[in-house]
Each structure stands twice: as C-alpha cells, then as structure tokens.
Amino acid sequence: MKNELLTLCFDGTNYHGWQVQPNAVTVQSRLQDAAERILGERVPITGCSRTDAHVHADMFCCNLRTHKEVSPEKLHTALNAVLPRDIAVLSVREVPLDFHARYDCTGKSYRYLILNRAVRDPFLENRALHYPWTLDAEALHAQAQSFLGTHDFSAFCASKSDVEDKVREIRECTVTRNGNLVEIRVTGDGFLYNMVRIMVGTLLDVQCGKIAVGSIPQILSSCDRTRAGVTAPAHGLYLHKVYYEE
Amino acid sequence: MKNELLTLCFDGTNYHGWQVQPNAVTVQSRLQDAAERILGERVPITGCSRTDAHVHADMFCCNLRTHKEVSPEKLHTALNAVLPRDIAVLSVREVPLDFHARYDCTGKSYRYLILNRAVRDPFLENRALHYPWTLDAEALHAQAQSFLGTHDFSAFCASKSDVEDKVREIRECTVTRNGNLVEIRVTGDGFLYNMVRIMVGTLLDVQCGKIAVGSIPQILSSCDRTRAGVTAPAHGLYLHKVYYEE
Lengths: 246, 246
Prior knowledge:
Alpha-Beta Plaits, homodimer, 21% helix, 10-stranded mixed β-sheet
C-alpha cells in the first residue's frame, strides 16, 4: 500500500465543488475517474477540505491510497494526461501511510478577488467579483483586522452547517489593491461553511454602509448569522495555500 | 448622422475572429446584433483589423455610424448590458464623420503569452501557449531585434493572403520573462495575415534548434514563407493596443 499526496490547481467554474455528490460533476469525481483509468482500481481520495460550487483553487491537496506499483512521477504525468484541462496536478509525492490530507492540515489561506472598475473584464468572467462601486481597500483592511485572533465564528457560518465547534483562529486578514484589482486574503487554522465568503460579504456591506464601521467585533460576539453580511459570490474565491507540518 | 468610436476588450475563445462570416459566430456579428437591438436599425460597424479565430483583444477599436440620437454614455451602458459576457465595451466617444477605424489606425501592438513550465495552468487554458521546454527569453529577445525596421514580410505572411504590398515597419519587438510567463510584444504600423503568429513560431523554432540562430535577416530577405517557422497557435495572441493620431 502506498499513500500519495497530490497537489492540484483547478478552475472551479464547471464544478460543483470538490466533494463527490450525486448528479453533479465535482473535482473529486473527475479525479477518481482519472485515477481509476490509470490504476485499474477505484481508490479512496481524501481532500484537504470541501469547496463550494464554482470556487477555484490555486492549490488544493488530497491523498490517494493505492496497492498498485506506480511511481509518483508516472502517476503525475498520467493524471495530467487524463484529467480535464481545467484541473492540473502540480505535484505528486509519497507520504507516510497515516498521512491524512484533512486531519493533518495545519492551516489554509484563501484569497478573494474583486474587479473594482465600472466595466466588466471578459478575462475575469467567473474568476473575480465585479464590484463597480467605490471600494476603499485601506479602510476595509482596517476593519478586517477585527477578524484576527481566536473567535467563535458562528455569525460567519452558513446556518445549514452542522459543525459543533465554531471557534477558529484567523492569523492574517488583509485587503490590498493593485490597480483595479482588490484582493482579500484570509489565513487561518480552519474555516467553517461559507466563512470566507461571509467575511468578504460583511466587509462589502461595511463598504456600502449597510453595516456600521467598527461593528465586526460585536457581530462576532453576537454569534448571530443574521447580523453579518451577505455571502459573497463563490466565483471570486480561491483556495490559495494549504499548510502541513513538514 | 453620428460616428461613434468604440473601444472593446474580448476573450476570443468562443469566436471565429472579428469579421462577420457566414455560419460562424464572430465578435463583429455579436456587436451588430447588440447595436441593432439598441438602435432599432442595422448599422455599419468597421473594425480596426481582422483578427484570427480564438485571438483575444485587450483593446480593439471599431466605429459605428448611426442616424439615431443616442448619447455615447447611453450607448456604452446599453451595449454592455446586451453583449455576451466575453465581450466588453471599454469606452464610446463621438468622432468626426470621416473617421475610419482601419484607415486612420497608425499602428498596433500585439502581445503573445507563453506559459513556460512543465504543468499546464487551468487559469491560462485557451489564453496562453503552454510551452513546457527550455525557453531562453533573453536569447530570443536578441534574435527578435532582427525584425525591427522596415522589411518585406512576405516570409512571415500566410500564403493564402492576397495583399500586394507586404512591406511593414516593426517599431518594437521584445521578449520578456516574468516568472513562468514569457511575453513577446510586437508593435508596428501594420500587420499581414498571421504575421505575429509566424514571427512567434519562428522564434520558438530558433529556440528548439529547427531554425539557426542569426538567420532571421536571411529569412526576411528570402521572402519565402517556407523558410520561416510554424504559425504559433492563435490562443496565445492578444491585440494589445491600437494607435490613432490624436
């Protein structure tokens, strides 16, 4: 038995997220099909997290266990040959048998991309939120610092989540502007269902005046989802980095 | 009668180029449909150039003549509301009646984007040439300087072209690297059919040893298409800038 750690990158536009679902095309199902074609057996593949439909990944990790004798190099080349063009395997390496892509993950970074100009950009269609109104990145960055530290993020979790422990640590939350592009980057030890999208939506609601400046600490302590902002659209979100202890 | 100069941007993936063609979807046909819907009449639209199927545009100019009373601002907003999402109108402004987007164009810049790494990038699918082999941008830049100046570009023109005068002036031809991305930029007074793609293909053939280093001047003076390199794929090419005298 071998355990292989795969690092992927995917354009999530055409997928209903990572996790296998009935009657929906997902990245995991595509990867399982590709692996089965190469290995001649259906193998278990474990992802570092679920992702929502249409969310992208600059980096996504998963591990695959197989009885077949295949070198990481050959598996890498073969997977890229068989996978659809909107999924790429960046690397494959053998890891200890007890390595688990989700349980061993020590942190993740997400980035949320916003196109802030009047006219849409055809090259960012499905890849950035088009926000044509005023957006003060510096002011939002200041607001975003309230997310730092360890909090109960119940107010920033989709109500249909059934996770019990909603305490998470946010290590970094930055809002930066590069020309017309604004990027919100969030790093933490773990994330609840829709958490980054609700954090982004709340910052945008502060921007447009629907939520008062300075109220993020109160929203956090309220643990009340209805006090936070909208859930920002999925297509601006990228899982950017996945951390493991070396 | 009014003459409006439209500046567009489009992802060419789903189009058979700019120019209206029977039985093919083109950018011009989509724009004519959109303008007809807004103006209530079929109007003549003249582009700054043809573009090949699947070529992109960071900037493309065309002019539209109409009898209807509509402000540039309203036309701008209405076109973006009606056009498909892979075409955007960046600006609309009124120009003198005798302005002609093709004849008055004094120059154009193209850029050709190459992803130079082993693994493909899902986010650059259809938007850059994936070239996984060694590519020495500095060496190619030195070779590319042979294109500068005024030459007969017959050797760098698709054989099915029926243009008679094949003399063009190239003002700039640079090859630069930014990480895994290599960009070839070409600026000139005008371009022949497939000219930039053959220039790029020739540089890549020099890179891989199919064409000898230092032979571009001889290929130019031969006026022989068979001595130049392959025609690089369309999907790496972007019309980048269109110049007019102010």
